[in-house]
Amino acid sequence: MNSDGKVTPADFTIIGSPHPDFTAGLDFSLRRGAWDLSFTVFGTFGNQIFDDQKDFYIFRDFSTNVRNDLLTNSWCMTGDDGCTHPADPNAKYPRIDQNDAFSRQVSSYYVESGSYVRLRNLQIGYTLPPAFIRWVPLARIYVQAENLFTITGYNGLDPSLPTAGGATGTGLSGEDIRDQYRGVDRGSYPTSRIFTVGITTNF
What we know:
The protein contains two helices and eight strands. By secondary structure, the chain is mainly beta. It folds into two domains: about 10-55 and about 105-200, no CATH class; about 60-105, no CATH class.
């Protein structure tokens, strides 16, 4: 940032934003005869996520599981730390080194696009004929899927993060730090995919 040819803390600057440029949703329903279909799609666009998990599964802040391609897509020299491929200037990850305390420092490497489009809900139903079940005047059978799929370029578990990631309190100037912590992924449990079969009726 300061053009001195060295990467130092003097090069820190603010980049990205956890706030989307815009969000959008679509609710759709269709009925034909006894069949009905409805779905809800939601998307958020233009926000960034600070993927703090990389500190653990790439830079190994403590001994834990790592990315499954860490060995083959890292920069290394033949024989270094078990690597068998030559140095790769286009590597996805830095040289594998348990004692590397520099690469894990906060940088733009942790920042990724948080844009996504998700099928939040899909439901297909069928209304049974009135005479199908004698003692039930009206019945509808349906199958439903929630969070069926998500389209995103984010490499973490889920681009849909909690509002504040559990951070509470105030900053030095008395500001609410929850907004500053928004968009930080420290391993939030991903949104579950749920399938439901049901029946609605009246008597």
